[in-house]
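Instructor's aside before we start: the two examples that follow are unrelated to each other. I chose them only because their records fit on one page, so don't look for a connection. First example below.
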Amino acid sequence: MLVDRARVKVVAGAGGNGCCAFRREKYVPRGGPSGGDGGDGGSVFFIADEQLTSLLDVKYHSFWKGERGQHGMGSDCHGWTGEDALVHLPAGTIVRDFKTQELLADLVEPGQRFLAGRGGRGGKGNARFVTSTNRAPRFAELGEPGEEREYLLELKVIAEVGVVGLPNAGKSTLLAASTAARPKIDNYPFTTLSPNLGVAMLSDHRTLTLADIPGIIEGASQGKGLGHDFLRHIERTKVLLFLIDLGDEDPVQTRDILENELAQHSSVFAERPRVYALNKADVPENRERFEALESAFGTARCISAATGEGVVALLEELWALVERLRREPEPAELEAEETEYTYEAPFTIERMPNGFRIEGRRAMQAAQMTAFDNDAAVRHFHNRLKRMGLFHALKRMGAEEGQTIAIGDVEFEYHPD
């Protein structure tokens, strides 16, 4: 069963809390703060796995969570880092943000990783906050919550040759004749209900990967039939093989229908090399038609997938085309793009009817890692915001005493220094 779409929610592990402790031992006067740091939370990674061919595993296991980091302990003992959650996906999976549909990653190479959820940072213990003026800090940071996100996963089968044609053109028969794949074959429309992959073994240990796509009918690009749902699986192919039944009423019109549906589905097919193969030459009247049709196709091969006639020569032609394209550098390799540094502001300020809302990773992190039931921790939080320049920015925006300042779920009143 091919599952090529899945919705996944990931929650990275929260960081462990820092510890507030003091060293008290006999014969050790003024031992001082000894609270250890909390461990970082485990992240969630998507990993391309060449052993998988479907999103079935994540379809029914759609929630993944990283392990929480261990809390810090006394005697300067730090907590351990939480274990990462590794989500294995078939190579060829596209990762999109579920809400915005933004393309985030394309996992093509086996072993390729994508950070789906970043683990929270462990809180610092009170031993980290010792200064010359504060020799005994009585607070520690809380662990930062892990990142929480939802993704839409889409699988696009990775094959070198995509076989397209109308229902009953003989695509599955060709795949079975040229590879070790054993797709279901029968004489009724839409025998192929999901893409099938096969690897053709040629001489001198050469290989060629073919994908058999469910039959395309006129209107498939508008959602008719089954081909529309699976046309995206041949977007990655290097070469398109048009397999046309010589017994069709008008094989030239059949070619035009296929070309039109591919063009309407995506512009990526316009530059793909094409090979035309007219199938079912084992029927005597079909063989006679081929001579009259050959000029209309320019170059086309007459084959019989059922008997194997012409299949080897067709595979050799496909392999030569694919091998030439393999040697051509990818566009990304022609000119390396320079990585631009982007500045991330520590906070942004948005006006509200009764005050201001603060956004930004550093400001949010400071609020999430503060224990507001501890006066010392609140003072430390205030000093962090002051060092960021937040209060100076609020003053410039005309903030008045008593207005509400919101940072995430935390709200407090503004009082100018």
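Example two begins here.
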Amino acid sequence: MEKYIVKEGDTLLSIAEAFGVRVIDLITQNKLEDIYVLVPGTEIIIPVDMPLGFTAYIVRKGDSLYAISRSLGNITANQLAEVNGLEINEYIYPGQRLIVPKPGVKVYITKDGDTIKTVAEEIGTSDTSLIVYNPNIYLLPEQLIAYELPSNSMDS
């Protein structure tokens, strides 16, 4: 579940599209009686399932993948594009929902030939930690792997 603050001009349809959820799920989750009136400043619950270690980022006017990645500090613009199925120079628009790693979470995009052991070694974690954090690892090329570095790590 995620919280969203209604902005001027928002509709249930625009919010549902931005978060990739159904309008009926917004209505049900928030017990909305008047579905035609959304008051700016009202907090609504978005019923989204995010991958472990990730949260949503709603694109604002003037944002770019480069600016967002720079402000987050734990993901590159290229990784942010890959995580969201975008090309690096693809247009992103205000209200668009991107998934981004939470603070302290790093990402790795798998390559052909990767194994649990080689990925764990490359990112500096254990096989067990990698599997716990990513219960559905198939190791197909371009699979997203999320991980947290040990607290004593010097990586920033």
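The chain has three domains: 1-49, 50-101, 105-148.
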